[in-house]
Amino acid sequence: MHKNAPALTPELLLGGYASGIFPMAMSRDAPDLHWFDPPRRGVMPLHGLHVSRSLRRRVLRWNYLVRVNRSFSAVVAACADRDETWINADLAEVYQSLHLAGHAHCVEIWQDGGLAGGIFGVALGGAFFGESMFSRRTDASKLAMVWLVDRLLRAGFTLFDTQYLTPHLASLGGIEIPRAHYVAQLGAALRLRADFTAPPPATPQSVLQRISQIS
Asked: Which of 58, 66, 211, 214 lies 20 to 30 angstroms, CA to CA, from 155?
């Protein structure tokens, strides 16, 4: 279900998320935004991330750097740099404003001096609203997902909203839940105070140990 949205502001976006809805553009050049409230919501259970053996080996290979909030605008631009995208200029501008205000964050994967992959999203209370992810190197977005989930757990988040469920997210353990269940989880998460920036640096071994303990 969707409807035309008024001019988007950071406050309006946060209010929409707190109400269980989210905006998207129909294309990069579309001037209008629409609010969506799907009957089934995509979520990534923080205690259910699936790490395959090949992904585990890639995490432990440690031939990459993990950075948090170093190149937020570059991550958003990379996520929008595809043939079809729902991120238009208005959304990108609001995400940047939310980042500067401490509400929007990213996890970046760097390899050989370049940005290889990443994920960005918006944090509100104990809910993290994942917006988009990208890869320029094999499994870079999966690496970002592993490190993001570990960070969300250590920071005190309880809800990782992915909006819709894609095959890529499903392969990592993502599921769909009915709207009513989502609203209940959202309400509980919004009453919490999680801090995305609080967790100290971690090692691949400690990340995988935590995830294996909770999966």
From this structure: 58
Q: Decide: pTM greater than 0.85.
A: yes
Q: Count the domains in the chain.
A: 1
Structure-token pair, residue 20: 């269980």
Tokens of 33: 């935004």
CATH assignment of the domain containing 180: 3.40.630.70
Kindly state whether residue 143 falls inside one of the protein's structural domains: yes
Q: With contact defined as beta carbons under 8 Å apart, do 43 and 35 qualify?
A: no
Q: Mind listing the pLDDT tens digit of every residue in the chain (215 residues)?
A: 444 556 899 999 999 999 999 999 888 888 888 999 999 999 999 999 999 999 999 999 999 999 999 999 999 999 999 888 999 999 999 999 999 999 999 999 999 999 999 999 999 999 999 999 999 999 999 999 999 999 999 999 999 999 999 999 999 999 999 999 999 999 999 999 999 999 999 999 999 998 876 65
Q: How many residues does the chain have?
A: 215
173-185 in b/e form (b: 16+ CB < 10 A) is bbebbeeeebeeb
Range(s) of the domain holding residue 121? 39-214
Distance (Å, whole) CA 146 – CA 210? 11
Domain membership flag for residue 33: no
